[in-house]
Structures are given as C-alpha cells and as structure tokens.
Design goal:
318 residues; alpha/beta; Nucleotidyltransferase, domain 5; 5-stranded mixed β-sheet; 13 strands
Length: 318
C-alpha cells in the first residue's frame, strides 16, 4: 500500500505521532491508547517549534522534544496542498477502481492526474438510502508534494507511516464527541476560515471550508460582523442540505471546537442556528495528565488537527 493510499485507511493499535504546520510554526503530538479500558486517549507529549517549517532539521528537533523517534508518524497536509472531491462511485471491479477514479476527476483539478497521488473512501449511504447512487470522497495531491514530505522524514530517520488531510483529522475528533445515533456538526474556526464537518456513526458525510478572515486586526467591527453573518448563512444552508438529502441523519446540536481567540461568530451562531451550540473542551475527550499545558483551550485550538490525525491508532480512525 502506497503512502498516499493510507490517507483514508484504518490503522492498527499503537501510539502515533503527528506533525502539523500551523500559523505558529511546526507543532507535534504523540497520542496513545487509554491507560484503562473505556478511558480517554492519552496525549503523551506535545511540542511546538515557533516559526518553523517542515524540514529535516525541524523534524529532527521535534522528534527529540516528543521523544518519538520510534513511533509511526502521520502528517496532515496543509489545506493548499490537496483537493478533496465528491464523485459518484465508479461501477467497476476493485482492480479497476484506481484508474476509474483518476479518470473521473481529470477535469476537476488544475494539473494532470498522472502527476497526482489519489486516495478515496466511501460515503456510506447504501444501507440507509438504498435508492441513492453511492458516492465517494477523493483526496488528490501532487506527487512532488507528497514525495518532498516523505523525503524530509526519511532524512530525519523518522517513519512517515501515513499522510492525512484536515477533514479526516476533524472527523476523528467528531467520532469521539458523537452520541449513539446522532449526526454531529463540528465547526473549527481558524485564522483564515471555518471547517465544517458532519459525521454519523464515525463516518464523514459532509465537509465544507468557509474562507473568512475572522481575526484580521485591520478590519473594523462591522467587517467582522458581516463575515460572521456570511458564515452563519453557510452553516444554515449546510444543515438544510443534510435535512433534505440525508434525512437519516438526525442533527440535534452543533459543536464548536476550541477557539484560537474570541470572536463574535460564537454569539452569532448561538442566536441564529436552529439547534443548540456547544463549545468543546478537548479535556473531555483526551487524557492531558502528561500534557497539562493543553488544559488551555486556546492551545487546544492550535493542536486540534494534530490531535485528530494522531488518533490513527484507533481501529475506527484513519
């Protein structure tokens, strides 16, 4: 199985480390199974290299801080480095699937798909809506980007066991938050936009990235307010889309991931959504006893994607 094919595939039980390039620099976590049956996943270590980019020296330094030279690593790609697409599932044999997917997306990306790594996962509607044509999520990234990342890990003598994307990292967090039988909407607010994911039974059914700069100090209050209104409208439309097209998903709440800073969007969501808004504290999902600094919810926002990606050790995570 190639490196990129592991984007959306399950992984076995072990501790994993994740590296993520964020606005603060290069950060990493190591996450392992709960200390006791039924307990929370343990965040064994976390570290940040301020203003660092992903490279041989920075990865070596990060692995020393995490004491993670021998763990498998996962790298969630920066959003600009991949596309995530939805297409009808090709009705072909398993051995023809890869080439059929490559052909189906050839007009959906702005570079030749012969130069792309491709992976996919099903959107599981067959048993719930048997009359609906099956669809799949496809992740596509340029060959050279994945190869360059892999080379940086190889030079650092670290095992890059998988490449991830931000949507599935968020999905892994949502799977810990979901209650039995509910469809969960999770919103993660970042510096340049809002990631919306809707999951059901631990599977990703809808993702949307809403580009808005909510923390631009140069903007005035009215500019930020208008940005909040646009985001609320997009969330409302997403909820309406699910109710019309995926009626088996019952959404009773929206969960807001830890915030990097306070924003008027929070109150706008509380006032205008048809279901309650709950603010997530990752301490309810993870054991931070070895990393008490992560009790700070602002820091949790920085580490959200890395934490979700490192959940690959769980049998139902990818």
């Amino acid at each position: 199985m190639s490196l990129i094919d592991r984007i959306l595939r399950p992984a076995g039980p072990a501790s994993w480390s994740a590296a993520d390039v964020s606005a603060r620099g290069l950060l990493g976590v190591t996450v392992g199974p709960a200390a006791n049956p039924g307990g929370k996943p343990r965040v064994l270590r976390c570290a940040t290299l301020p203003n660092a980019q992903l490279g041989t020296e920075s990865l070596s330094a990060l692995s020393k801080l995490l004491q993670a030279h021998n763990t498998p690593w996962v790298l969630p790609l920066p959003r600009k480095d991949y596309n995530i697409l939805v297409i009808a599932e090709p009705a072909v044999r398993a051995d023809e699937m890869h080439q059929s997917v490559r052909w189906a997306i050839s007009n959906m990306v702005d570079y030749p798909t012969d130069d792309a790594f491709i992976s996919w996962m099903k959107i599981p509607t067959e048993s719930l809506m048997p009359g609906r044509p099956p669809h799949i999520y496809v992740v596509v990234a340029r060959n050279h980007i994945v190869a360059e990342n892999q080379a940086a890990f190889q030079r650092s003598k670290l095992q890059l066991a998988a490449v991830d994307v931000r949507e599935t990292a968020h999905r892994n967090i949502s799977a810990l938050v979901e209650k039995p039988g509910e469809g969960l909407v999770m919103l993660a607010i970042g510096a340049t936009g809002v990631q919306l994911t809707i999951t059901f039974r631990g599977d990703l059914y809808l993702d949307r990235y809403i580009e808005e700069n909510l923390f631009n100090d140069s903007g005035d209050e009215s500019t930020r307010q208008r940005a909040s209104e646009r985001i609320v409208l997009q969330v409302q439309r997403s909820l309406d889309f699910v109710s019309r097209t995926l009626s088996f998903i019952d959404i009773s709440r929206v969960v807001l991931a830890p915030l990097p800073a306070e924003t008027p969007l929070r109150s706008a969501l509380e006032l205008n959504l048809p279901v309650p808004l709950e603010v997530l504290d990752l301490a309810s999902l993870f054991d931070f006893s070895a990393t008490p600094e992560l009790a700070d919810t602002t820091l949790q926002a920085d580490y959200l994607v890395a934490l979700g990606a490192a959940l690959r050790f769980r049998n139902n995570a990818s």
